[in-house]
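SECTION: protein entry
WANTED: fold as tokens:
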Amino acid sequence: MIPSLVLRTWAKLLVPLTFLFSLWILYRGHNSPGGGFAGGILAATGVALYGLAYSVAEARKLLPAQPLALIGAGLGFSVLSGFVAYFYNRTFLTGIWNADLKIGTPLLFDIGVYLLVFGVLMQFALTFERRIGEEGE
């Protein structure tokens, strides 16, 4: 089944907006509802929409890295954010803030969660996504 011209056109318009909105949700989330989990889901939704409009191969081209690499990077950022507290003689995952920049380790943790959720959903979606008719249905 060939996707409609309308779906392809809207996908090209919505995917960049979806990514920008997901980054806004990511940044906003360490002070308000949202954060890495919601932002990662939103980013994955944009890539999935593009995959439905074009193809899985085209959707893979949007990814900055392989999904498993994104998962590893996300875990790394999340764990790293926890170890920063040790340099300040605090317990693991204690929030450390830079007052001048108004950012802290919770944002680093959220970036890790964002990458992890995005990577897991992309691994799942790109592995199991199939089009109707490709397998004789």
Q: What stands out?
A: Strands lie at 97-98, 103-104. The chain has a mean pLDDT of 87. The chain has one domain: 5-128.
